[in-house]
Each structure stands twice: as structure tokens, then as C-alpha cells.
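Dear H.,

Thanks for agreeing to be a second pair of eyes. The structure we're designing against is below in C-alpha cell form, covering all 290 positions.
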């Protein structure tokens, strides 16, 4: 049994750690609520861009445009969204595990894998793997990024695809479903693949395009990709805060359990010490009387 001094030090240390985890839990909960609201409000933008593209696809052959061309895949680019810090449960490990799995599949099929890392965790993994070619790292996004913040990533992935440097662009992120449920999701950004609803009236025509059809389609397609990338970033931020809140709550609860266990052990040690002292006093009295 540990001495009372050691037990007191352990209890004090765990109490200090519990204060930190509790503070991190409250901060993450506050950030999660704001990030969740922000992500929910932005979904309408992506839905609008998609609806406009569906209408255009009903009267145009989109396969002729650069961003819609399907090519044989020899080079694949991954946009991987992770965090800059840890203490978020399995948030980063789930995304990186998904990346490693599909990169391994690329290796079997003799395909080259390129990565644009959003967050230090993805960048650290990519730097340490010979199978991955790291193109860029972005790690300075706030909880509410603007369209201008993601514009460099958007321009980079579009230029790589148009210049035939990559044949497919895949986005890997964590989708926020609820406070206790998040899942890793993969979506293909390029080439753009539109599913035209059967309800669309293909006889519908547009009388005028300003300035022209090609410019309108190119602009809307770019905005559609931007909306998908932006939404994925918002979903990932909300997921990160949610998983960090749960991780810190579990850490706080575990700290409380440890404190209770060590307190019980401390009381037992104190009782044993008192019993030993009483026994020594009784023995001394009996020795004097004898």
C-alpha cells in the first residue's frame, strides 16, 4: 500500500488534471454548438448550386467540359481534413485510417497518390509515408472559415485536374450527424458527376445565357465544388469539437473515479496508521504495567 504522502500527491495531481479536462470540455461544447449552427445554415448554398447544375445538365452535354471529363485514373489527389491538435478522441485516427486504406489500394493498382492536407495531423502522416506525395498543407483555418480562406485549395485542385496532373480528386472528411455520432465520409469532387433527376423537364429551354453557356456552366461548377469543400470543412470542424467534448467528458469522469479510488485507499491507509499507533500505545502501557 502506498504511503499517505504519495496518495495525497496523486489525488492533488488528478484533481488538477480534472480541472483542465473540464475546462476543455466546456470550451469544446460551446464551439461545437456554434460550428453546428454554422454548418446547418450553409447547406442551403450547396443545395442551390446543385439544383442549378441539374437544370443546366438537362439541356447541355456536360461531358464535353473540362471538369466533367472522365479519364483513366493513374494519379489520384486526396483532400484530407484533420485537426491541428489532439485530445479529440478518434477524430484524426479515423480519417487517417481511411486514407491509409485507400492509398494501399492505389499501390496495388499502380496508381500514384497525392495529398493536400488540411490540418497538421494529416500533414505529419503524409510526410512520413513514401507512398504519398504531399502537395500542400493548410492549417490556419478558423472555426468559421470564409470562401476566401478555401479559395487557394479550390484553385489548386481545379488546376491540377485541368492540367491532367491528376485524374480524380477525392475529399476525405468527418461528417457531423449528431453530438454523439460522426462518421468518415469520402466524396469525389472531380470529375463532377451529376445525377439528373427523372422529374426534370428535358424539353425546358433557357432563352438567354449571360455572358454565354460555357461561362455559366464553368462558374456554377466551380461554385458547386467550392460549396462541397466548404461544407466538408464545416462538418469536420463541428465533428472535431463534438468528439473533443466527449473525450474530455470521459477524461473528467475517469479522473473523478480515480480520485474516489485513491481517497478510499488514503482513508484505509490512515486507518491502518491509526490502528498501528493504538497498538503501539497499548503495548507500551502493558509493558509499563508489567
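And this is the sequence the design step returned. I haven't edited it by hand at all.
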Amino acid at each position: 500500500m502506498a504511503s499517505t504522502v504519495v496518495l495525497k500527491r496523486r489525488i492533488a495531481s488528478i484533481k488538477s488534471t480534472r480541472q483542465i479536462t473540464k475546462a476543455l470540455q466546456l470550451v469544446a461544447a460551446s464551439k461545437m454548438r456554434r460550428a453546428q449552427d454554422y454548418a446547418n445554415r450553409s447547406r442551403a448554398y450547396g443545395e442551390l448550386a446543385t439544383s442549378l447544375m441539374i437544370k443546366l445538365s438537362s439541356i447541355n452535354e456536360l461531358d464535353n467540359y473540362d471538369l466533367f471529363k472522365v479519364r483513366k485514373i493513374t494519379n489520384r489527389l486526396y483532400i484530407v481534413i484533420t485537426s491541428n491538435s489532439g485530445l479529440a478522441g478518434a477524430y484524426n485516427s479515423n480519417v487517417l485510417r481511411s486514407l491509409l486504406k485507400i492509398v494501399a489500394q492505389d499501390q496495388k493498382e499502380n496508381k500514384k497518390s497525392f495529398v493536400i492536407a488540411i490540418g497538421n495531423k494529416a500533414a505529419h502522416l503524409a510526410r512520413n509515408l513514401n507512398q504519398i506525395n504531399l502537395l500542400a498543407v493548410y492549417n490556419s483555418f478558423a472555426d468559421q472559415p470564409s470562401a476566401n480562406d478555401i479559395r487557394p485549395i479550390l484553385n489548386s485542385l481545379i488546376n491540377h485536374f485541368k492540367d491532367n496532373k491528376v485524374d480524380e480528386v477525392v475529399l476525405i472528411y468527418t461528417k457531423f450527424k449528431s453530438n454523439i455520432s460522426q462518421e468518415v465520409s469520402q466524396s469525389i469532387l472531380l470529375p463532377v458527376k451529376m445525377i439528373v433527376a427523372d422529374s426534370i423537364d428535358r424539353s425546358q429551354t433557357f432563352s438567354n445565357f449571360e455572358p454565354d453557356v460555357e461561362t455559366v456552366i464553368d462558374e456554377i461548377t466551380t461554385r458547386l465544388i467550392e460549396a462541397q469543400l466548404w461544407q466538408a470543412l464545416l462538418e469536420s470542424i463541428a465533428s472535431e469539437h463534438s468528439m473533443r467534448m466527449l473525450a474530455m467528458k470521459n477524461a473528467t469522469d475517469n479522473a473523478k473515479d480515480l480520485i474516489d479510488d485513491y481517497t478510499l485507499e488514503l482513508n484505509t491507509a490512515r486507518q491502518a496508521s491509526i490502528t498501528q499507533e493504538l497498538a503501539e500505545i497499548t503495548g507500551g502501557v502493558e509493558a509499563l504495567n508489567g
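Two observations from my side: The chain is about 60% helix and 15% strand. Residues 25-246 form a domain with the Pyruvate Kinase; Chain: A, domain 1 fold (CATH 3.40.1380.10).

Warmly,
E.
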